[in-house]
Amino acid sequence: MSLKDFLHKHLAFLRKPERYTQLKEFQIFEGLNNRELNVLDALLYQREYSKGETLYEKGFPVELVYLILSGEVQLQETQQSFGAGQVFDLGSLFSSDKRPDTAIAVEDTEVLALSHSDFNDLINKNRGLGVKVLKNICIQLSHLTHDRPC
Amino acid sequence: MLKKVNYTKILFYLVLLTALGFGIWFYSYVFGYVIAALVLAYILDPLVNAVERLRFPRWLAVLSVYIVLAGLIALLVALFAPSLYDQGAQLISLLQEDRPGTTNPLVELPLLKDIHLVLMDLDARIPVLDLANEYVNFMDMVVEHLVELPKTIMQNYSTIIGAVSYVGMIPLICFFLLLDKVRFRKGILSLIPNRYFELTIILIGKTDETVGNFMRAMLFEVLAVALMVFVALSILNVPYAILIGVVAGVANIIPYFGPFIGGCVAVLSSLIAGQPTIMILWVALAMYLVQLVDNNLVYPVLVGKTIDMHPLIVLLTVLAGGWFGSLVWMLISVPLLYITYTMIRETYLNFKMFKLL
To answer: Which of A16, B61, B250, B351 is deepest in the core (most CB within 10 A)?
Structure first.
């Protein structure tokens, strides 16, 4: 490995690849700097689901939260749909209960999967990142519940 | 209607299978290296993570852990290796020493000499009995085997050189495993179909948790017991304290029986050194105290839960390990059984939850 390759690989956060713009589309990652996006990116698994494929079934153990890059996912019971730039079953980032609903890809879908134990590990290592993400999640929750007192 | 056979497909899969088989055969020699490196990586990973938390890039974190550890090992070797070597050499020369008047050095040792005297007394009373001679013959045999030990080591030097190259390679492989942990994991996981993806991640997490913690705890326990035995025996002035400490620490890996082996070694060495017979009691007490501290303080803090296994199963496993391989297998058989059992249980539970079983 040449020095240039080495630096290229290990100082990756100095580059600004497309991926960061992709990640910044997600509201929960708003305000993260490139260094933080770089560590986060290392933990994300890109997966592809074809139309009609099941992401998870109701009652399955929870480990992953899915961020949709493209396509559409529908929850079976609530009939809620999620599209690009959205995250569903956000609660699974913090709890490891059972899945409350079945999720199915309505069309060919690309997602980023984040393991909640990896994420917990990350926010323990990177307090700053953790606070930013938590803040974003709170904002999202307050939008969801702002007409209902909770 | 007969389905049309796709020969190209069959041919392709045959070639693929052959390549795969050849690959496995070709790489089978380095399998052991990778496994040992994985074990080391498991042990070191939390340290690297801790350094990484100080905002070090991963490569620098791995490198600093390596440098600090190498320094520590060098320091320990410089401190203890000379006396460890001396103690071993002394022990062997004690056995090889020719003393005037006796045929066997072991028979000259306090307790063993007492037994010899009792037997001679018995022989004198009961004419046909020839126990004393039998006893000396038996002791001769024991000494013969003990003296052979260094020779055996010398004769197997090529194996030992092989082992040294093995030991040199492992940190290198481990370095890359630690450095690119995330990349390797991602690479392997990208091959997993969607249906099994989440399950695999859960299983990897569980493995990290149980196996990693277990191995780390075991390593620290070995060190703790070795250190405590060394200190306790040094206070009692038992010779070869370092050597016994190392043996007792390693033997401690085997539940129930390991501590007993350590105790026996300590008592025997006190006897061989010609200390008074009453020292057996003190040494045994010291070893018991070490076990007390280990079981009630070190183990609960480090491991949290004990290997809950029936002594009979432990005994049979250690025996099977002995028949299967060498001393090393006897040592690792119980932890291996525990890890295998835990992994199978976790896999079963998760397969059930994912409705795969």
So the answer is: B61
